[in-house]
Design a protein that fits this description.
single chain; 703 residues; globular; 8-stranded mixed sheet; 30 helices; binds (2S,3S)-3-hydroxy-2-methylbutanoyl-COA; alpha/beta; 6-stranded mixed sheet
Length: 703
């Protein structure tokens, strides 16, 4: 598109209107800044123009710089829009609808006035992609709303609704009218003669707040220490705002640009940009165009009010949807609803939910007593006991009762979707919707595709997931589906390394230092060791070649089930969840290793990390190779949102690419020689390694 098409300029009754038109979000892609500057110069030169308006076409103002351009060589622009806006002789009004984010808000801050519609949102979310506002935002926002409020917005990257933006002082007026352009032209006419022009760069009164509270910057560093562990961008954001207080504006802008340059091509910024786009790629599924018509979902039901069923019901209530819940008994229902009330009450107590919001959400969860009561629902999610026979009975009943066309989803975490679909007369309307526990917290939703699931059934589940704030990901019907199947080898390796002499606390420390909130053994104690114990026994009974794990088995048989029994891999003081290494565990490890004749040895942190993660990288390649995942980047999204993989490392496969596919393959082949079949390298991994390709780019055939 020509620069002009990306940015339009027209004059209405003495007001120059600059309209950015770069769908879908009016990003500042190449040509857009140039078009804005050309329009500003046009307005400046036209004596008939008394004032100007900057706005966006379509659904938004400007959503920021074009993130796809980062990391690519680009010439520094001769002039930046922020400077041209600043230096103009005529007042400019930013008229905001949709989003004004990043460079979009920075352009608005360089204008003289800002108005917004009530539904508009503004923000400086650059920290979320590992950088910082690089268009003067760290220097202007503190001047407009004070350094403390500015720092909070910039370090959190949060979006601020128009009403709060008005209260903070970011926007001058929230306009209710339906026609923003009309409101903006009228507003511009109202201020056209007002002088001096209110240039944010010249406002320094609010900066004095830092003199009254000089500890604000150190306090911010302390307050983010846990969440921002290992990360650099949040601290650079604080430093940039400090410069706004301690340096003149133009010096502060230079400091901002120096700090920005240190971040743009860092591994963390590259990883976070990759995660941003991978999360958008995951919503695209083959066989179905993005805008294919889908059944409208107006009523939903959940079968089962246990931990998962209650959590799933909360997901719908949290997003304003009523949901019917059916349980086998009144007692189980009462227990389930009480758990929901307790969950909400905990959030209210923590301050993350207002009581009024809780009071609105609870009534949306409606207990029912019969299948007939849900017969007219458009879809139902089954969340009963993880036992095939139980699920089959439920699906037979659902198929018999639910109206024709109703979609039947199962929350099973591993059972065969085809076997469940086969008991119904509508297998094309059956699929898996696998929520991760706790369902109302974890964002990952695996949409598991049965052989007969129709593309519409899958796409409806994906869309439903997004409508309740989930990251919905396509998953093939394989044991453990995609997320858990790709993680299983990591858990196996962690247990086998314990037999070889690694201590649980050593393994956990490696993973926490890597960026996980907790290590796998502490997670096991939290979840309960008896759960995995039961599934290992089921697997051993079904498969004579199944490799048993005697150490965790023996811990459970000793009654050490984790936090709930005060001891598992670690011991726990009463009322204290801090995991403490326990000599009893060391004794069990040595006892089992001796029985198994396994020589004990020391491990380096790097070997522990690579033994764990390479096992899963290999499995992820096999899953994509079998077509059970569409893309390796989908697996990365699952690890970010299902397992707490540190986001600034991009994802499992992105991280592996930092080491290089050939080095990963060579190491796996070495372990294949040493440890045998479980380390057999994926053919796809070998092929990518031979070409020196990127693991994060591999896709299933035909994707
Ligand atoms: N650059 C490039 N593409 C973008 C983009 C961006 N900033 N924002 C969105 N897209 C694409 C996205 O990949 C998707 O593409 C489509 O637009 C719809 O996005 C100088 C340096 C605005 C809240 O971080 O938060 O400014 O998949 O699905 O759910 O200081 O997009 O259709 O091909 O997310 O309605 C700062 C990032 C940049 C905003 C809309 N700005 N975007 O959400 O749509 S750095 C951001 C978002 C910067 C300055 C600095 C969201 C949204 P496709 P979507 P949505």
């Amino acid at each position: 598109m020509s620069e002009q098409a990306l940015v339009r300029f027209d004059v209405e009754d003495g007001i120059g209107v600059i309209t950015v038109d770069n769908p879908p979000v009016n990003a500042l892609s190449p040509g857009v800044p140039e078009g804005i500057i050309a329009a500003l110069e046009h307005g400046e030169a036209d004596p008939g123009v008394k004032a100007m308006v900057l706005m966006g076409a379509g659904r938004s103002f400007i959503a920021g710089a074009d993130i796809r351009q980062f990391g690519k060589p680009r010439a520094a622009p001769a002039r930046r829009t922020y400077d041209v806006l600043d230096q103009g002789s005529k007042p400019i009004v930013a008229a905001i609808h949709g989003f004004a984010l990043g460079g979009g808000l920075e352009n608005a801050l360089a204008c003289h006035y800002r108005i917004a519609v009530p539904s508009a949102k503004v923000g400086l979310p650059e920290v979320l992609i590992g950088i910082l506002p690089g268009g003067g935002g760290t220097q202007r926002l503190p001047r407009l709303i004070g350094p403390k409020a500015a720092m909070e917005m910039i370090v959190s990257g949060r979006h601020v609704a128009a009403a709060e933006a008005k209260t903070l002082g970011i926007v001058d007026e929230v306009v209710e009218g339906k026609d923003l352009r009309k409101e903006a032209v009228a507003y511009a006419r109202g201020i056209a003669e007002r002088r001096p022009l209110p240039r944010v760069r010249d406002m320094s009164e609010r900066l004095a707040e830092a003199k009254a509270d000089p500890g604000m910057f150190e306090a911010m560093r302390k307050s983010i220490a846990r969440k921002a562990r290992n990360q650099i961008a949040p601290y650079h954001c604080i430093a940039a705002v400090e410069a706004a207080v301690s340096e003149p504006f133009d010096e502060g802008v230079k400091t901002e640009r120096r700090l920005f340059a240190e971040l743009e091509n860092s591994d963390q910024a590259r990883g976070l940009r990759y995660a941003f786009f991978a999360e958008r790629e995951v919503s695209k599924i083959p066989d179905l165009p993005k805008d294919a018509p889908l059944p409208e979902i107006k009523s939903v039901a959940v079968i089962g009010a246990g931990t998962m069923g209650g959590g799933i019901a909360m997901c719908f209530a949290d997003f304003g949807m009523s949901v019917k819940v059916l349980e086998a008994s009144a007692e189980a229902m009462a227990k389930g609803l009480q758990r929901v009330r307790d969950n909400y009450a905990t959030s209210v107590k923590r301050g993350s939910l207002k009581q009024g919001e809780m009071d609105k959400r609870l009534p949306r969860i409606q207990a029912v007593e019969s299948y007939e009561a849900i017969a007219d629902c458009d879809l139902v999610i089954e969340a009963v006991f993880e036992e095939m026979e139980v699920k089959k009975q439920v699906f037979e009943r659902l198929d018999a009762v639910m109206k024709p066309g109703a979609l039947l989803y199962t929350n099973s975490s591993a059972l065969d979707i085809d076997a469940i679909a086969a008991v119904t007369r509508r297998p094309e309307l059956v699929a898996g919707t696998h929520f991760f526990s706790p369902a109302n917290v974890m964002k990952l939703l695996e949409v598991v595709v049965g052989k007969k699931s129709s593309p519409t059934t899958i796409a409806t589940a994906m869309k439903l997931g997004r409508s309740i704030g989930k990251i919905a990901a396509w998953a093939g019907n394989t044991d453990g589906f995609v997320a858990n199947r790709s993680r299983a080898p990591m858990v196996t390796e962690s247990n086998l390394m314990i037999e070889e002499g690694a201590a649980p606390e050593d393994v956990d420390k490696v993973m926490v230092d890597f960026g996980y909130p907790m290590g796998p053994f502490a997670v096991g104690d939290l979840a309960g060791l008896d759960i995995s114990y039961a599934s290992r026994r089921r697997r051993a009974a079904a498969d004579p070649n199944y490799r048993k794990l005697p150490i965790p088995d023996r811990l459970v048989e000793l009654g050490r089930k984790g936090q709930k029994t005060g001891a598992g891999w670690y011991r726990y003081e009463p009322g204290d969840r801090t995991p403490r290494p326990d000599p009893e565990v060391k004794r069990v490890i040595q006892e089992v290793a001796k029985e198994m004749g396994i020589a004990q040895r020391a491990f380096t942190p790097e070997e522990i990390l690579r033994r764990l993660l390479f096992a899963s990288v290999n499995e992820a390649c096999k899953i994509v190779e079998e077509g059970k995942a569409l893309r390796a980047s989908d697996v990365d999204v699952m690890w970010l949102h299902g397992f707490g993989f540190p986001r600034y490392r991009g994802g499992l496969m992105f991280w592996a690419d930092q080491i290089g596919s050939k080095a990963v393959y060579d190491q796996i082949e070495t372990w294949h020689q040493r440890y045998g079949a479980r380390w057999r390298p994926s053919n796809l991994l070998r092929a990518v390694a031979q070409k020196g390709g990127q693991l994060r780019e591999i896709k299933a055939a035909g994707v």
